[in-house]
């Protein structure tokens, strides 16, 4: 895995409220998205901050979302350049002892992704997104 962090995704209770806070209060540069996209992106150099409804984020990672669950409410993401690299990176991580939470699969937004958990329970997504401008 290359030494790079692509996204920090925060699972939020109220997407509109959180988006307004990051855009208006913190004055972060928001990336335009189509109405109803259900996600907000803020470009912070080569790392992006994304806001996504907490329950939907837990569902995307195939983990439970409850106060007692092992889901911390956000994920970290590592984007790869080519689709096949999602499987390769996850396989390499598993071979070195990482716990795979969700194996690589084609996903609804047109890319491919899977998740692993670090030793403290934080979730990392390994993703290929054909619409993402940089990796």
UniProtKB/TrEMBL annotation:
Positions of the VOC domain: 4-129
The cross-references to PROSITE patterns, in alphabetical order and at most eight, read: VOC
Cite the Gene3D superfamilies for this sequence. Answer: 2,3-Dihydroxybiphenyl 1,2-Dioxygenase, domain 1
Q: SUPFAM superfamilies under this entry?
A: Glyoxalase/Bleomycin resistance protein/Dihydroxybiphenyl dioxygenase
**Pfam families in the record:** Glyoxalase (PF00903)
Database matches in InterPro entries: Glyas_Bleomycin-R_OHBP_Dase, Glyas_Fos-R_dOase_dom, VOC_core
- Which PANTHER family is this protein grouped with? BLR2520 PROTEIN
UniProt name for this protein? VOC family protein
């Amino acid at each position: 895995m290359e030494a790079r962090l692509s996204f920090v995704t925060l699972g939020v209770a109220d997407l509109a409220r959180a988006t307004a806070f990051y855009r208006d209060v913190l004055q972060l540069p928001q990336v335009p998205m189509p109405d109803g996209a259900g996600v907000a992106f803020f470009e912070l150099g080569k790392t992006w901050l994304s806001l996504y409804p907490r329950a939907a984020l837990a569902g995307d990672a195939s983990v439970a979302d409850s106060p007692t669950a092992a889901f911390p409410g956000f994920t970290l993401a590592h984007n790869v350049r080519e689709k096949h690299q999602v499987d390769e990176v996850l396989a390499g991580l598993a071979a070195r002892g990482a716990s795979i939470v969700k194996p690589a699969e084609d996903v609804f937004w047109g890319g491919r992704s899977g998740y692993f958990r670090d030793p403290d329970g934080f979730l990392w997504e390994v993703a290929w997104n054909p619409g993402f401008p940089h990796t």
